[in-house]
Amino acid sequence: MIRRSIIITSYVPPQNRRCISAAFASLMQPTNAQPISSAAKSNITLARSQSSFVKTALGRNPSLCNTSNSFNVRRFSTSKDDSSAQSPTQQTNAFLLSLGYSNAVSKGIIDALIQNGIPHSSLFGMVKGLAGRYEVGEDAGLEALAASVKNELESEQGKEKLKVWFLPSTGWSSDGEDDDGFGLPTIHAMDRAFPVEVLEGTNLADIARFGTSENCDVLREYLECACNGIMACSTCHVVVHPEWFDSTRTSDEVSASGVDQTKIGTPSEPEQDMIDLAFEPQRTSRLGCQITLTKALDGLVILLPEGSNNLMDDIPFD
After folding, report:
1. H helices within the chain, ranges in order?
2. 91 three-state secondary structure
3. Distance between CA atoms of residues 153 and 150, nearest Å
4. Residue range 262-270: average pLDDT?
5. pLDDT(130) > 60
C-alpha cells in the first residue's frame, strides 16, 4: 500500500509543489466528505505556506477549482451527456488516460489527491486544473505529481537505485577541437563532482526536473530542460565522460547489441541537430533527455557545461 498522503508535499519539487498546494487551499471540502486525517492536514498546511504567488493566479482563474462533472475537454469529452454518465473518479481516470498516463499512474494520482483531502466530486476539476494548457504543453503541476507517483511505484517494483556523478564546468575543460570542430573534454578535478541517486529507467533530464534525492536541487541549477524532454531544445545538454562514451556506435546500436552497455553511444541525427545549437558542444555531447539509465550505467560520470543556449530567449547565431 503506497502512503500517498505524503507524496504531494514530500516528493514533488518545490517549484511545482506550489501549484498543487495552492489548488488544495482553494477547494472547499463539502460537509458530506470524509474527514481529513491529521497527517493530511499537516501536509496541506505546510504546502499552503509556500503558495501565495499561485493563489493570486488561481484567483484570476477560478475555473481551476470548477467541480462540474460536465467539462467539454478537447480530445476527452465532446458532449455533456458523455461526461455526466461517468462518476467523477471514472471521468478523471479517463482524462488521465487520454493524456497518456498508464492505469497505475492514473490510479496513483487519484489516490494521492483523495488521501490529501480532495473530495471525489472535485477530482476532475483539480486534475484538469493541474494539467494546465496541456494541448500546448503548458503543465501546471500534473507532470510533477505523476512523476512522484511513478517514482514510488517503481520503488515498490524493486527497481534498483543507481548513482550518477555530475562534474561542474570548474572540474573539466575543453582542450582543442577534433576534425569536425567539436571540443575534446579533459577532466582535471574529479573531486568537485557531486553524486545523485536515481532509480534505473530514469533519464538524466527527469532527474533534474523531478528528482528528490540529495543534490537534485543542485543539478537543477545546471540543467534547465525548457522543452519538457521532447528533444526540441538543447537546454539539457550534457557531456559524457570520455571513458563512458562509445564513439563507434549509436545509442540504439549499443542497446540492441546487448553487449558492453556500460558505454553511451553517439546521438541520433535529430538529437545531433539540437546539440549543434547547444553551448560549446563537445565530441561526447548528448541531450540529457535521451540518456536513460540502466544498471550497467551505475557510477556514470556526466560533465556539466558552463552555460546553455535557450532558443526561447537566445538565438546562438551571428
Report:
1. 7-11, 14-26, 38-48, 52-60, 80-84, 88-98, 103-115, 123-131, 142-156, 204-210, 216-220, 251-257, 269-275
2. helix
3. 5
4. 92
5. yes
Q: Taking residues 176-198, what's their average pLDDT?
A: 88
Sign of CA dihedral 236, 267, 200, 174: negative
Entry pTM = 0.60
Q: How confident is the model at residue 240 (pLDDT cuts 50, 70, 90)?
A: very high
Contacts 24+ apart (CB under 8 A), 276-280: 277/234, 277/309, 277/311, 277/316, 278/234, 278/237, 278/305, 278/308, 278/309, 279/234, 279/237, 279/305, 279/306, 279/307, 279/308, 279/309, 279/316, 280/174, 280/183, 280/305, 280/306, 280/307
Task: Read off the pLDDT of residues 245-259 as tens digits, 9 standing for 90 and up.
Answer: 998 888 777 777 665
CB 137 within 8 A of CB 154: no
Yes or no: say if 283 and 182 are a contact pair by the CB < 8 Å rule: yes
Residue appearing with cell numbers 500534473: 142
Q: Which residue has the cell 495552492?
A: 22
